[in-house]
UniProtKB/TrEMBL annotation, chains A, B:
It holds the Pfam family HTH_5. It comes from the Bacteria. This is Transcriptional regulator, ArsR family. GO terms for molecular function: DNA binding; DNA-binding transcription factor activity. Keywords: DNA-binding, Transcription, Transcription regulation. It comes from Candidatus Electronema aureum.
Length: 108, 108
DNA sequence: TGCATGTTTGGCATAATATGCAAATGTTAG
DNA sequence: CTAACATTTGCATATTATGCCAAACATGCA
């Protein structure tokens, strides 16, 4: 692992890390259906406004979402939609785990 | 976000989290070229044997790699090869960040 | 049996650091 | 100016990831 590889891996890991949180993952998936404003997330989750705003900031800084401010509202949308394609694969991993996750797997 | 969604998102996030570390990401990518034994990783990285073993255990427990013990050596291989497909997308995210990462991007 | 090689585990220090709430601050529309 | 929408700051808290060391375990070979 040379220096360049290391730097590149760190950059990639940072992107994955941003998605490696249940709340952020869920929000990213919601954005697959189109842009959403912060207030919509606040309505859908039982978190403080500031908490949600922070999570979105993490996704934004990772380059996963982009922001569009319109009027009083701030809309977030996926910047690189392919991030959701690989959720299929993550689900495949979970299925392959073959643990006692029957209940979980029924929803994949 | 109901209970089921939450549980599922937690499971997915756990998989991503396992890959969200430079060392583990690098190892997973190395495995794309075929199985490797622990000692090969030790030779390629400047980490303690135990450190590498622990990282591999994280990947294993996440369901990303599987183990094959042959003789004195332990071989690891990708259990769900598609995990590497989405690296293309992660790289796309990095490219899209368009920050001052020219040096980094030249290696994507 | 005993030793060398390869690997895992337990313990540990350290630092990091993520999370989510509360309060204060911005921003826009009306 | 006020209300609605959003971000930032500060903070407490707990968590916990990381990587080294030493010890234990496993396997093959002499």
């Amino acid at each position: 692992m040379n220096e360049q590889e290391k730097t590149l891996c760190e950059a990639k890991a940072a992107v994955l890390k941003a998605l490696a949180h249940p709340t952020r993952l869920w929000m990213a998936e919601q954005l697959a259906g189109g842009e959403k404003c912060v207030c919509e997330f606040v309505g859908a989750m039982d978190f403080d406004f500031s908490t949600i705003s922070k999570h979105l900031a993490v996704l934004k800084q990772a380059g996963i979402v982009e922001v569009d401010k319109r009027g009083k509202q701030v809309f977030y949308r996926l910047k690189v939609p392919c991030v959701l394609n690989f959720m299929n694969c993550v689900e495949a991993v979970i299925k392959a785990q073959g643990k006692d996750q029957a209940a979980l797997m029924r929803h994949l």
